Amino acid sequence: MRRSLVGELLAMAAISATILAGPVSAVVASPQTAAPVGKQLAELKGSDTLAGDAVGVSVAISGTTAIVGAPGYAKDAGRAYVYTGAAGHWDQVAELKGSDTVAGHFFGYSVAISGKTAVVSSPGYAKNAGRAYVFTDTAAGWKQVAELKGSDTAAGDYLGDSLAISGDIVVVGADGHRKNAGRAYVFTDMAAGWKQVAELRGSDTGAGDGFGYSVAVSDTTAVVGAPDHAKSSGRAYVFSDTAAGWKQGAELKGSDTAVDDGFGVSVAISGTTAIVGAPGFAKAAGRAYVFAKTGEVWHQASELKGTDTVASNDLGYTVAISGATAIAGAPGVAKDVGRAYAFTDTAAGWKQVAELKGSDTVAGDYFGYSVAVAGTTAIVGADGHAKSAGRAYVFGA
For the chain, what is the HEC assignment? Predict the structure, then answer.
């Protein structure tokens, strides 16, 4: 169902009836009352990107700042580009790289941002042990302030296959850990710098489950996907930071998910609402499931699908949520041109309000391979565009 090597993931040719593996970048933003209208505001590319760089494999947004990963840059050394939006224009303001990244590290495979802090992963680092790098926006520009690794990560763990940030909390997935049972590591920014404070695993996960393939965090609540659990029917686990440390509070699954649905390939959370993608559902037409927390109990609130999605569309391959707005990517639509669907929470339940596509996307672009949303602004990656040079598209009201 999913790759075993980082390099396979960047081949850009595997979205079909089978679930394509890829990064998930989660971002938490302020609640909103209106969904993105669907108007394209900008088309982003790196100032020095070329064919094969894969701009848009990962995207994230916080306020008016966006970050886009290009893990194929310079023989897969990778880069990440930072953009700011103002007065209708989005401009590149920084090009990030890890202090010790080299060819084959895939820096930019996953990205996340919260306020003035961004995190970028390099899952290919040190024979695929993986690393994550923290950057801060300073008066002198964006600067690296930390390099994160798990306390027990080793070659083949792929730390950084997924990551997320909310305030001073970073969660990094390592789905290859211990024969692909997987782990997720929680880091906090302390007076002495960024420190690991927890190592998460699902209460019933085992070898091959891929726990940590996707992660998301909002305040002190994290969601971690394990899409290969139970013959790839998949699960997602909810954890909270308590007085006794980080503890699992719920195990989520879709009400109608089955073998090979890949529930948990993507996860996102905003406040007390979470969304989980299952792109393998119904011959890879795909679904996304919305869960809400009432009291201390998480329950499924809705099951989302696009108005025109069919088999092999992979809806739910990526998901994002901000307040009352959710985005679900479907990179397999129309011979892999791809689409992204915007949904909003109304008095009558969750409803689709927009279908997004890039103004110049064509077959093989995989628009929807990554998605993010903040307020009324969404960003969607299309890493296959222009011979895999890649693009990211910004949408808003």
Answer: CCCCCHHHHCCCCCCCCCCCCCCEEEECCCCCCCCCCCEEEEEECCCCCCCCCCECCEEEEECCEEEEEECCHHHHCEEEEEEEEECCEEEEEEEECCCCCCCCCCECCCEEEECCEEEEEECCHHHHCEEEEEEEEECCEEEEEEEECCCCCCCCCCECCEEEEECCEEEEEECCHHHHCCEEEEEEEECCEEEEEEEECCCCCCCCCCCCCEEEEECCEEEEEECCHHHHCEEEEEEEEECCEEEEEEEECCCCCCCCCCECCEEEEECCEEEEEECCHHHHCEEEEEEEEECCEEEEEEEECCCCCCCCCCECCEEEEECCEEEEEECCHHHHCEEEEEEEEECCEEEEEEEECCCCCCCCCCECCEEEEECCEEEEEECCHHHHCEEEEEEEC
